[in-house]
Specification:
The chain has 6 helices and no strands. The protein is mainly alpha-helical. The longest helix has 4 residues. The chain starts with 11 loop residues before the first helix and ends in a 20-residue tail after the last helix.
């Protein structure tokens, strides 16, 4: 038997599983495992209740959302990322309306007169 002592203030018992509040010292959402900021009772109370299929990776437009910019993200999904060179890898596929238009090659005809 393992006993974990957690202050109620900083616990998933108070916060609730699957929720995130930026003001909390620790978190109880599925991303806390990635960001290493889970409350100590997260595994015991929440992890078993979570769906087994993971969501999109944090550094993707599928996660961030199209048209959004955050200086905290290493890549972006806004209309300016293309010109800044910091688009997420899935930007063109996930946010086609914001991706720059692809230009078709133009045909060039050369006429030689002798």
């Amino acid at each position: 038997t393992t006993t974990t002592t957690t202050t109620l203030f900083n616990s998933c018992a108070r916060i609730g599983c699957g929720t995130y509040w930026s003001a909390d010292v620790c978190h109880c959402d599925p991303l806390c495992s990635i960001y290493k900021d889970c409350c100590t009772d997260y595994t015991f109370l929440c992890q078993a209740a979570e769906a087994p299929t993971p969501g999109p990776a944090p550094n993707t437009c599928a996660f961030i959302g199209c048209g959004k910019y955050s200086s905290l993200q290493p890549c972006q999904c806004d209309g300016l990322c293309w010109s800044h060179g910091d688009c997420c890898a899935d930007f063109t596929a996930f946010c086609p309306a914001l991706a720059p238009p692809t230009t078709a090659p133009t045909a060039t005809t050369t006429t030689t007169t002798t």
